[in-house]
Amino acid sequence: MPEGHTVHRLALDHGRDLAGRPVAVSSPQGRFADGARLLDGCTLLDVEAYGKHLFYRWGHPVLHVHLGLVGTFRTFHGDAPAPTSGTRLAMRAEEVTVYLAGPAACELLDPAAEDALRARLGPDPLRADADPGAAFAVLQRRRGPIGGVLLDQRVLAGVGNAYRAEALFACGIDPHRAAASVGRDEFDRLWHTLSGMLRQGVTDGRIATAPGGGRFVYKRAGEPCVRCGATVAGASMAARTLFFCPRCQCGNAQGCALG
DNA sequence: TCTTTATGGTGAG
DNA sequence: TCACCCTAAAGAT
């Protein structure tokens, strides 16, 4: 489930449900037992999202969570079921209970470690402090196709496989084109498209980028392109399945027809 | 009751 | 580029 929109939505929800109150923290699975013991009963001050990373502040070392590919949070209002055997972290404040399972990271970070982590991240299109120019400057120096560079969190933080496919389609950009060949105007349209799609995803709680609540190309390999009817392609790029329309994104399409 | 799949990232070769 | 880590749900047997 997790691209930037999921993580930002979680930060908003957890901030609303848990912050400002003492939180009962535990690790039913046991793999975060030491950290949970330290945080248990502390008042959560705030929750921040940066790209695909979550930071929970308590006045202690910050709690850093990264969902990875399979991590999921589940929230219960009122009575919560018993946690599953894989529940790494449980947090409860008043009537809200949150379970975390399968994260790539659930750890305490001291300020230096947090700084080092943030220094590795490019601008996040969902954040007000994001500077698209910084992302463009990095992108211009990259070798390799734009479809691969978009997934690199050092260039842009928060974009994953679904949004790379949808945004490149919406902008009519061939994913195989060299990243360095993308001009500033074109990049600005791409940034704006990504930002809008991600923002919509935060609101919706899911990735619905095409009119009618569906998707343009993501996971639609073999089906007809919604715009031109050509068969949507699926191919591997940067170790993930890339979906695109070989006609609409043929390498000489102009501009951002849909975005 | 298996096997497969997933919107991610790291570290080894 | 590959193997591998994490968990749960869906699909196949």
Write a concise synopsis of the structure shown:
The chain is 29% helix and 20% strand. It is of the alpha+beta class and 259 residues long. Mean pLDDT is 92; it is low at 253-259.
Structural summary, described in words:
The chain has 259 residues and is α+β, with helices and mostly antiparallel strands. 29% of the residues lie in helices and 20% in strands. The protein has helices spanning 4-18, 33-39, 111-119, 132-140, 146-149, 161-170, 184-204; strands at residues 24-26, 46-50, 53-57, 62-66, 72-77, 87-93, 96-101, 105-109, 233-237, 240-244. The strands form 3 sheets. A 4-stranded antiparallel beta sheet has the order 1-6-7-5. A hairpin with a 2-residue loop joins strand 9 (233-237) and strand 10. The longest helix is centred in the C-terminal third of the chain and has 21 residues, at 184-204. Residues 253-259 have low confidence and may be disordered. The structure holds a DNA duplex (13 and 13 nucleotides).
β-sheet strand percentage: 15-25%
- Following the backbone from N to C, one meets helices and strands in this order, namely HEHEEEEEEEHHHHHEE
Low-confidence stretches at least 5 residues in length (pLDDT < 50)?
Answer: 253-259
- The helicity comes to 25-40%
**What is the makeup of the main sheet?**
4 strands, antiparallel
Estimated structural class:
alpha+beta
How is the secondary structure organized here?
Blueprint: H1 4-18, E1 24-26, H2 33-39, E2 46-50, E3 53-57, E4 62-66, E5 72-77, E6 87-93, E7 96-101, E8 105-109, H3 111-119, H4 132-140, H5 146-149, H6 161-170, H7 184-204, E9 233-237, E10 240-244
Antiparallel strand pairs: 1-6, 2-3, 3-4, 4-8, 5-7, 6-7, 9-10
Helix pairs in contact: 1-7, 6-7
This protein binds a DNA duplex (13 and 13 nucleotides) through residues 1-3, 5-6, 52, 66-72, 84-86, 88, 101-105, 151, 153, 160-163, 207, 218-219, 239-240.
